[in-house]
């Protein structure tokens, strides 16, 4: 089983959207915690200016209609999705978080999703393999990452908010590391990504 160092990384070649294009279309009823997805979100309003976004998100200065990230486990995960949106995390911090999650997954069953040759088992077969790392929660990932919390990059969606979903599978995990930056779907437009990253650091990493 490959270490994080050994998996092939994106390193600025593809945007998150381009990574997701090679993902697997997934029904909302098939979404599972501990996996990475891209969602297309139904816009909550016609006019989403900065004032509306701040009020709607309870103080965040962005809304993402094409989030891509890690879906967390919680008691009502079949009804409401809680996701860490990778697009609003500064790339160096994101690489650290992905490294930590890969190592955590390796310790708690990730290798069982691959056969003896290192090839990812068929999705239908893996859907019935329940591993401990799928139980990842926001508080546990924050603790593992050394963050006070990751709130600024964590968003909640009802199933009705999600118009489509794509699974980013484990053999494409490295493509989430250091992507080429894109602001497609991030509002208000034009969005200042540097300010979004700054706000993430201010709100999440105060230690």
Question: What would you note in describing this structure?
Answer:
The structure is a single chain. With 207 residues, the protein is of the alpha+beta class. The protein has one domain (16-204). The protein is 26% helix and 16% strand. The chain has helices spanning 16-21, 50-56, 91-107, 123-126, 138-145, 193-204, and strands at residues 24-25, 36-41, 63-64, 68-71, 80-85, 154-158, 162-168, 186-187. The strands form 2 sheets. A 6-stranded antiparallel β-sheet has the order 1-7-2-4-5-6. A two-stranded antiparallel ribbon has the order 3-8. The radius of gyration is 16 Å and the shape is globular.
Tally the structural domains. Answer: 1
Which term fits the overall shape?
A: globular
As a percent range, the share of strand residues is 15-25%
**Helix fraction by DSSP (H/I, runs of at least 4):** 25-40%
Topology summary:
Layout: H1 16-21, E1 24-25, E2 36-41, H2 50-56, E3 63-64, E4 68-71, E5 80-85, H3 91-107, H4 123-126, H5 138-145, E6 154-158, E7 162-168, E8 186-187, H6 193-204
Antiparallel strand pairs: 1-7, 2-4, 2-7, 3-8, 4-5, 5-6
Short structural summary:
The chain has helices at residues 16-21, 50-56, 91-107, 123-126, 138-145, 193-204, and strands spanning 24-25, 36-41, 63-64, 68-71, 80-85, 154-158, 162-168, 186-187. It has 207 residues and is of the alpha+beta class. It has one domain (16-204).
């Amino acid at each position: 089983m490959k270490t994080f160092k050994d998996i092939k990384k994106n390193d600025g070649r593809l945007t998150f959207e381009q990574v997701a294009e090679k993902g697997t279309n997934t029904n909302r009823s098939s979404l599972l915690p501990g996996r990475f997805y891209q969602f297309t979100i139904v816009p909550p309003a016609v006019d989403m200016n900065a004032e509306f976004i701040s009020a709607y998100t309870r103080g965040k200065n962005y809304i993402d209609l094409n989030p891509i990230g890690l879906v967390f486990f919680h008691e009502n995960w079949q009804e409401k999705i809680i996701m860490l949106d990778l697009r609003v995390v500064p790339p160096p911090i994101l690489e650290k978080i992905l490294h930590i999650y890969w190592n955590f997954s390796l310790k708690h069953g990730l290798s069982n999703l691959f056969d003896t040759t290192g090839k990812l088992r068929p999705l239908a077969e893996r859907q019935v393999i329940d591993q401990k790392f799928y139980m990842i929660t926001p508080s546990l990932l924050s603790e593992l990452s050394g963050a006070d919390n990751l709130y600024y990059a964590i968003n909640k969606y009802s199933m009705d908010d999600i118009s489509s979903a794509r699974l980013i599978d484990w053999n494409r995990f490295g493509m989430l590391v250091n992507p080429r930056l894109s602001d497609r779907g991030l509002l208000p437009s034009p969005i200042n990504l540097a300010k979004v990253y700054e706000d993430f650091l201010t709100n999440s990493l105060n230690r």
